[in-house]
Structures are given as structure tokens and as C-alpha cells.
TrEMBL record:
Lineage of source species: Bacteria, Pseudomonadati, Pseudomonadota, Betaproteobacteria, Neisseriales
Superkingdom to which the source organism belongs: Bacteria
Organism annotation: Andreprevotia lacus DSM 23236
GO terms assigned for molecular function: magnesium ion binding; phosphoglucomutase activity
Cofactor names: Mg(2+)
Reactions catalysed: alpha-D-glucose 1-phosphate = alpha-D-glucose 6-phosphate
Keywords of the record: Carbohydrate metabolism, Glucose metabolism, Isomerase, Magnesium, Metal-binding, Phosphoprotein
Record-given protein name: phosphoglucomutase (alpha-D-glucose-1,6-bisphosphate-dependent)
Domain Alpha-D-phosphohexomutase alpha/beta/alpha stretches: 14-153, 204-286, 295-407
Keyword Transcription included in the entry's annotation: no
Family membership: Belongs to the phosphohexose mutase family.
Xref: Gene3D superfamilies: Alpha-D-Glucose-1,6-Bisphosphate, subunit A, domain 3, Alpha-D-phosphohexomutase, C-terminal domain
GO-annotated cellular components: cytosol
Length: 543
């Protein structure tokens, strides 16, 4: 095996989005495409000679091939060691856990998260730093800048490393350690949650369905929930990760996890339902005939955190992304702790977690997590709920309705308009950006606008400024309309419209969400002229 220096030319568009570089598999399969990006990561980091990296992914199509490419390139670039998940498998939170536990220089995670997998679907790659979290913008900007000037990369002439056998080996002078993909993560979960109580909850006959959507949460959920917690075999369904996710769209929301929703709406529904996404960082929590919104889930976890051993000492603070509902703000207020509002993107929580300012974080996009790792964590969120169910003896529905009775309900929904033409979508946002400056104090749909702006964030830890993070219109009764373009889509542009209305009166909490939000939905459509500008009269996905 010899080190080779291969001449290359930049590819256009290797700009990492909200969560790394995501493109169609066939784009990644072009000669030099992945290599250019990986070398750009290494170069942007100032080289990786002598460093230790973690490597793994969600097992989707192209995962195994990419692992081999990256192993060769890491060896050729002089890395001391790569710790790789067996079979190339590491969920995103597990990768974060391993980076932190073994204090490595960083890690490369192969995933396009909740986007479908397969030859004609998506693949993705991102770099996480030594805190286990997604690289901050200054690093991703440097990676992108490097992709525009790259002229060569280093690799080995030919090598295939056996990533299926556990243990240590060598690749062209670099150490390679193939680790059990689940072990370190499962150990961390046992430190946080009351496993004996949850085991007793299952032993008492309580039932659950965890839908892994044929993605990477399968091995984690099976080993922890069916194995360590003693839930009956079959509790985890679609638990074997497949390269095409068995055709599932591995996004745990009511629109895509339809099998689970049907199970939870049936007369024979188990006590608890949950699902996770392609790389196991997202979660959906479901009760009987009830989908818990991610925003409510965050608020409920925060309100009850003291029941969980890992959080028994209380929370330093909480954080949510701007479009996430303000339900958790009310809990923070009651607990007398800080609540931070960040732009969309888990990476913005990193500094708050590192600085000990926030303990729990969450996003409306089915992401919840804590300072135990630096990624959102689907299986962790499910275990947190299991711990609450076991500790209180209450059902999901009871926990939710009691929460609303105490804090009020934030009716919440997100309307997505997917695969729009990029230009009209940008124009729609640009027009709104102009319009909002004049809205404060005016009436819209019978409500007074208290604040209207394009959200900007000044990081309280490092002072960095992030502008243009979404148009928000906040009414004086706490209702909100938020518009932004997705940073994770791979086809055209996706307009997201987030709608929220606060209702204090428990007698009104039983309303159907879309009906409760009908007035705001109308205002949102008219204000942005969604139909006129996009030609769409209904959203493609409503969650
Ligand atoms: C990923 C990110 C999240 C983000 C979500 C939606 O899951 O990790 O932080 O909230 O995508 O992002 P988008 O830009 O598509 O709304
Ligand atoms: Zn994900």
C-alpha cells in the first residue's frame, strides 16, 4: 500500500447546510467528489497528522463504500487512529458519545438523517469537533472555502479494511479500532436513567412499540429496550438497518411514521409509541390517539426532569430553536431558570451546553437532547419518557393533559411547502423581510402584532452573530407565525411556516390543532402570498 496524491478540481456546491453536506448518492459517487470534501475537511482543520478520529454512519446506501474511502484518506493524511463503528454503523448521538468518551480530535458522521436512502436517494457527511458536536460555522465555512480551491487529495492506492470484525488493526501505519456500535452509548444511558424502574414498568405488563423505520436506531433500541430493559421481543419494529431503509421515509413524524400512528390509534394500542429517524437523533413520542408535539415533549421533559436520576439535581437552563413553540419558556419561568432561543440547527446549542448554561435543548423538528452528548438524541428522549412513565405510573396522555392544565397549551403546527422553485421561494422571503419592518403595532386577523423581525442571534458564549434566521411575527397574545427556508432539503427550496397559539383555558385544550390554528393559518398564507408566489394552495406536509 502506498500513499498517492491525486490531482483534482473543485466541484461546485460543496457547501455544508444546516447539518453537513447532503446530496444524492449519484452525486457522491462521481469520481473525486467525496474525496474532495473529505480532504477539504482535513485541510480546513489544519491537517490531521497524529490525530484520532471517530467514523461511522447510519448504514444507508454508500455508507460502507464511503467508510473505506475515508479510512484510506485518513491513513494517507497521517492520522494516528480511526475508531470506526462495526460495519460502519454509528448513530449520530452514539458518534457524539464516542468522540467525547475517548476524547478524540473529532469525528466524521455519514448520514443524510431523515432523508430517504438508496441508490437514487440521499447521502450525507459532516464533521463533528472534539466536544462531540457539529462543527461550528467558522469551520464549515473554512471547509467550503477549501472545496472551491482544492487541487489534490491524498489516499492509498488500494485497500479494503475489514470493518465487520471487532478489534484493533493497522492500515498503512494508521491504527484502526472497530468498536461495538452500541456498547458505549448503552453505558451512558444506564448512567442517566432509572433502568430498574423502567424494567419493573415493563415487567408489570406495560407495552410499547418503537418503530426504527429500518434505520440505525434499530440496534440501539433493540439492545437497550428489549435487552437491558427486558421489553418483550417485537417491541422494536423495523429494527434492522437497511441500505434503503426498506423504502421507509425515515422521518419520525405523523406524515411518515404511518405504521406506528395506525398502531397507536387502534383499540389494541400499546401504552407507549415512539419512532426515530435515519441516524437516530430525532424522536417522536406517541400516546394512545395522541402525538406529542416535539415542543410539548421538551416542555414536559423539563418540567419533570427531577424524576430522572441523571437530572435529579435540576436543570441549569433550557434552550429551544426560535421556531419551536414557547411551551418550554413557561416551564423555565416556573422553575426560575434561563431559557435560550437559538436559530434552527443543533449546532447552536453546543456553546450553551459546553458553557453549562443549558441542560436540556429541543427543536420542533423532532429533536430533543441534553448535555450528555452534543447531538440531539432519539433513543435518549424515548428513555426519558419511559423513565417518566415508570416514575409517575401515569400514561402519556395523562402527563400531557396535566401539563397543559398547569401551564396552558401552545397549539402548534408546521406547514411545509416542499420542492419549490428556488427563485420564487427566495423572493417570497425577501418580500416578507421588507414587509415585517412595518408590521409592529398593526392588526392582522384581529390580533395586534407585538414584534415582527428577521430573527438574529448573538451567541452569549462566543459573541458570534447569525442573521437572517427566519421571519417571525409575534402577536400580543403570544401567538406566532414564523417563516423560513429549510437548510436541509436536497430538492429545490422548502418553505416552512410555523404556527403557534397559546390557550390558557383547559376547557379549550381538546380542540383539533388545525382548527385551533385556522385563523393564523389564513393570516400566514395571505401575508406571504404563498399561493400567488408559489402556485401552491396547500402544504405538502403538515406536522
Ligand atoms: C436537522 C438539524 C436540526 C434542524 C432540522 C430542520 O435535523 O439537525 O437542527 O432543526 O434539520 O432543519 P431545516 O433547516 O430543514 O428546517
Ligand atoms: Zn437525524
Amino acid at each position: 500500500m502506498t500513499i498517492q496524491t491525486i490531482a483534482t478540481r473543485p466541484f461546485e456546491g460543496q457547501k455544508p447546510g444546516t447539518s453537513g453536506l447532503r446530496k444524492k448518492v449519484r452525486v457522491f459517487q462521481q469520481a473525486h467528489y467525496l474525496e474532495n470534501f473529505v480532504q477539504s475537511i482535513f485541510d480546513a482543520l489544519g491537517g490531521i497528522a497524529g490525530k484520532v478520529l471517530v467514523l461511522g454512519g447510519d448504514g444507508r446506501y454508500h455508507n460502507r463504500a464511503a467508510v473505506q474511502t475515508i479510512l484510506c484518506m485518513a491513513a494517507a493524511n497521517g492520522a494516528a487512529k480511526v475508531i470506526v463503528g462495526q460495519g460502519g454503523i454509528l448513530s449520530t448521538p452514539a458518534a457524539s458519545c464516542v468522540i467525547r468518551k475517548y476524547q478524540t480530535f473529532g469525528g466524521i458522521i455519514l448520514s443524510a438523517s431523515h432523508n430517504p436512502g438508496g441508490l437514487d436517494e440521499d447521502f450525507g457527511i459532516k464533521y463533528n469537533t472534539d466536544n462531540g458536536g457539529p462543527a461550528p460555522e467558522k469551520i464549515t465555512d473554512a471547509i467550503y472555502a477549501r472545496t472551491t480551491t482544492i487541487s489534490e487529495y491524498k489516499t492509498l492506492d488500494a485497500a479494503v479494511y475489514d470493518i465487520d470484525t471487532l478489534g484493533s488493526g493497522q492500515l498503512a501505519g494508521m491504527a484502526v479500532e472497530v468498536i461495538d456500535s452500541v456498547l458505549d452509548y448503552a453505558a451512558l444511558m444506564q448512567q442517566l436513567f432509572d433502568f430498574p424502574a423502567i424494567r419493573a414498568w415493563f415487567a408489570a405488563g406495560h407495552t410499547m412499540q418503537f418503530d426504527s423505520l429500518s434505520a440505525v436506531s434499530g440496534p440501539y433500541a433493540t439492545r437497550v429496550i428489549e435487552g437491558l430493559l427486558g421489553a418483550p421481543a417485537g417491541t422494536v419494529v423495523n429494527g434492522v438497518p437497511l441500505e434503503d431503509f426498506g423504502g421507509h421515509h425515515p422521518d419520525p413524524n405523523p406524515a411518515h411514521a404511518t405504521e406506528l400512528i395506525a398502531t397507536m390509534n387502534a383499540a389494541t394500542a400499546p401504552d407507549f409509541g415512539a419512532a426515530s429517524d435515519g441516524d437516530a437523533d430525532r424522536n417522536m413520542i406517541v400516546g394512545r390517539n395522541l402525538v406529542v408535539t416535539p415542543s410539548d415533549s421538551l416542555a414536559i421533559l423539563a418540567a419533570n426532569a427531577k424524576l430522572v436520576p441523571g437530572y435529579a439535581r435540576g436543570l441549569a437552563g433550557v434552550a429551544r430553536s426560535m421556531p419551536t413553540s414557547c411551551a418550554v419558556d413557561r416551564v423555565a419561568k416556573a422553575l426560575g431558570i434561563a431559557c435560550y432561543e437559538t436559530p434552527t440547527g443543533w449546532k447552536f446549542f453546543g456553546n450553551l451546553l459546553d458553557a453549562g448554561k443549558a441542560t436540556l435543548c429541543g427543536e420542533e423538528s423532532y429533536g430533543t437532547g441534553s448535555d450528555h452528548v452534543r447531538e440531539k438524541d432519539g433513543v435518549w428522549a424515548v428513555l426519558f419518557w419511559l423513565n417518566l412513565l415508570a416514575a409517575t405510573g401515569k400514561s402519556v396522555n395523562q402527563l400531557v393533559s396535566e401539563h397543559w392544565a398547569t401551564y396552558g397549551r401552545n397549539f402548534y403546527s408546521r406547514h411545509d411547502y416542499e420542492a419549490l422553485d428556488v427563485e420564487p421561494a427566495n423572493a417570497l422571503l425577501a418580500a416578507l423581510r421588507e414587509k415585517v419592518t412595518t408590521l409592529a403595532g398593526t392588526q392582522l386577523g384581529g390580533k395586534t402584532v407585538a414584534l415582527a423581525d428577521d430573527f438574529a442571534y448573538d451567541d452569549p458564549v462566543d459573541g458570534s452573530h447569525s442573521g437572517k434566521q427566519g421571519i417571525r411575527i409575534v402577536f400580543d397574545d403570544g401567538s406566532r407565525i414564523v417563516y423560513r427556508l429549510s437548510g436541509t432539503g436536497t430538492e429545490g427550496a422548502t418553505l416552512r411556516v410555523y404556527l403557534e397559539r397559546y390557550e390558557a383555558d383547559p376547557a379549550q385544550h381538546g380542540q383539533e390543532t388545525q382548527a385551533a390554528l385556522a385563523g393564523l393559518i389564513k393570516v400566514a398564507g395571505e401575508l406571504a402570498d404563498i399561493a400567488g408566489r408559489t402556485g401552491r394552495t396547500t402544504p405538502t406536509v403538515v406536522t
